[in-house]
User: Which sequence fits this backbone?
């Protein structure tokens, strides 16, 4: 997974956010999340050391407002943002591309898992129908159906475990999970449920 910000870019981007107005650390983290559609939310351990470095360089100042520490850009900070306007435009463009790639990657993983689950459930349905046609009446069909229910349970549990692992690993590596990806997952699961209901009624 490629990082959202290349080395040194986050520093300049923080300055550009502070140029819009004074902010405290949480405001900056939220602004970064908002600008990236929720695909990137930096931790306090990422933001505060960079703010401390910017203060050390004389590019920002900080003041205490109640329980919050507010950061404000200095004239030297504004001069750096102005001098690096071209770099900032490149960061904005790269940020858009990076966020799009991350979202596409997660959506691709979810769609692949959905496709695999559909195939497993379709195979289970075909097997159930074939077994029902070959098994004598009475207890045979019920036993075969119970066996297929167990197979379906196993397929669903395997899918759940795999998607859960993929999503948690993605977030643990620093990636962010966009609401649109979860919406895609929910829609796909709803489609599968309706498809299975139609097959069973048919």
Assistant:
């Amino acid at each position: 997974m490629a990082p959202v910000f290349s080395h040194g870019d986050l520093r300049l981007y923080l300055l550009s956010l502070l140029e819009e107005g004074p902010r405290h650390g949480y405001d900056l983290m939220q602004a970064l999340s908002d600008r990236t559609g929720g695909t990137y939310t930096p931790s306090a351990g990422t933001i505060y050391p960079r703010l401390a470095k910017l203060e050390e360089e004389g590019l920002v100042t900080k003041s205490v407002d109640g329980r919050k520490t507010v950061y404000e850009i200095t004239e030297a900070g504004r001069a750096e943002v102005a001098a690096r306007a071209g770099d900032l435009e490149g960061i904005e463009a790269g940020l858009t591309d990076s966020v799009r790639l991350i979202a596409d990657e997660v959506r691709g993983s979810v769609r692949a898992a959905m496709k695999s689950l559909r195939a497993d459930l379709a195979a289970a349905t075909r097997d159930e129908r074939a077994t029902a046609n070959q098994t004598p009446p009475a207890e045979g069909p019920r036993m075969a159906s119970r066996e297929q229910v167990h197979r379906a349970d196993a397929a669903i549990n395997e899918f759940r475990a795999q998607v859960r692992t993929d999503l948690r690993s993605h977030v643990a590596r620093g990636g962010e999970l966009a609401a649109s990806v979860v919406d895609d997952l929910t829609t796909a699961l709803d489609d599968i449920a309706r498809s299975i209901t139609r097959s069973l009624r048919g």
Summary: The chain is about 75% helix and 5% strand. The chain has a mean pLDDT of 79. The CA atoms of residues 106 and 181 lie 7 Å apart.
